Prior knowledge:
By secondary structure, the protein is α/β, with parallel strands linked by helices. The protein has helices at residues 6-19, 25-37, 55-66, 71-75, 99-108, 122-130, 143-155, 197-200, 205-208, 216-225, 244-253, and strands spanning 77-80, 83-86, 112-116, 135-140, 162-166, 177-182, 229-238, 257-263, 269-275.
Amino acid sequence: xxxxxIGAALRAATARLSAxxxxxxxxxxxxxxxxxxxxxxDRLRLHEDEPFEAESRLDILLGDRLRxxxxxxxxxxxxxxxxxxxxxxxxxxPRPETETLIEAALSIGFDRLLDLGTGSGxxxxxxxxxxxxxTGLATDLSGAALAVARQNADAAxxxxxxxxxxxxxxxxVTGRFDLIVSxxxxxxxxxxxxxxxxxxxxxxxxxxCPGEDALGAYRAICAGAQAHLTxxxxxxxxxxASQGAQVAQLFQAAGFxxxxxxxxxxxxxxxxxxxxxxx
Length: 279
Ligand SMILES: C[S@@+](CC[C@H](N)C(=O)[O-])C[C@H]1O[C@@H](n2cnc3c(N)ncnc32)[C@H](O)[C@@H]1O
């Protein structure tokens, strides 16, 4: 049997994903086919009329996607802020919304960074790569996620500028930092069933859900922050879009000043910022 052209294979793959209700079938088909054919995704058009010889490989990738496995997990990588990050079933797939926290953190500057719940390391690695004079500590309760964060830090050439440590929030953290950041789990157990299957069935449960109380991780992070911040240091957390008022209240109760809510590009509340009062 003659192989279809790359263009025809792409149309067929898009139609399969579309028929199964996958949200962005054209984009996903392009990425998966490019991966199967070993061609950069932004070059596919140049190869459209060539024969596609990797049909069985693509079939396996499409099978994964039809089971709602996120493309980043299928490919094992996700691009974020101009860098490629390794992603595994032990790490949350980095989200574009997290760019809001990155932008806010870079705008204030910092020397010593603490990233709580680092996952793939996307926040700590991006911030230290962008601010070359800074050093940092990245923690996670998941040793498997931390191993991925370490690989991503090494790939970005951070070396000893970023240390990675297994810790339940602040438990194994010593010293003070002028910036603490976190994108903690913030989905209550009762809400898990209502999530899209790409998230619910594939992102690691401990990256999504802190337990019954959706705000549980924010309570722990706010409660321990001042003992680990310098005077005038900043705590910045990513939040679920409906949690702005509640998390801002936790910041207030913990004694933070200059509390601000920062929206993402879609105008939804995304980051809460607070400053430790000066001495
Ligand atoms: C929403 S994910 C964020 C991952 C990464 N920072 C990002 O933005 O893509 C939350 C992370 O917190 C970690 N985590 C959950 N509970 C924790 C705890 N008690 N202490 C430290 N990390 C925890 C999870 O393993 C997960 O990697």
